[in-house]
Amino acid sequence: MTTPPDDRSFRREMATAYRSGWHFIDLVTAIPHSGDSLMVTVFGEPVVVTRDEDDDVRAYRCLRRPRGAPQPVRCAIRYGMIFVNLDQRDHQLAEPTTSAAPRTISATPRSA
């Protein structure tokens, strides 16, 4: 007979095994126009994926504390699919470069 995992080991497993990878959210066609957004829950955390005025797709973790600003998370588009990575350990936000053409952030997800 196996015993169910306790809450502490479950949280540790979620943090190390699941949040450290890239996770499929939806197709890019789900947010076709500037200003469109999509609210999803990834492993119990609410995440908003939005298309900004420059046609870039961005993702934000919704904080639950009062007056908390949304925290940006890594977002990648690959083969017309949106992926997010909730792991913030190695994530350094870079200042966006100003360019006339819209840019697409692309990365290879672990699942690909």
TrEMBL record:
* Amino acid composition bias (Polar residues), ranges on this chain: 95-112
| Record key words, sorted | 2Fe-2S, Iron, Iron-sulfur, Metal-binding
Q: Does the keyword Lipid metabolism apply?
A: no
Give yes or no: UniProt keyword Cell cycle: no
According to the record, the residues making up region (Disordered) are 93-112
Instruction: Supply the SUPFAM superfamilies for this chain.
Output: ISP domain (SSF50022)
Q: Which GO terms describe its molecular function?
A: 2 iron, 2 sulfur cluster binding; metal ion binding; monooxygenase activity; oxidoreductase activity, acting on paired donors, with incorporation or reduction of molecular oxygen
Q: Which InterPro entries is this protein grouped with?
A: Rieske_2Fe-2S, Rieske_2Fe-2S_sf
Task: Cite the Rieske domain residue spans from the record.
Answer: 22-70
The molecule here is called: Rieske domain-containing protein
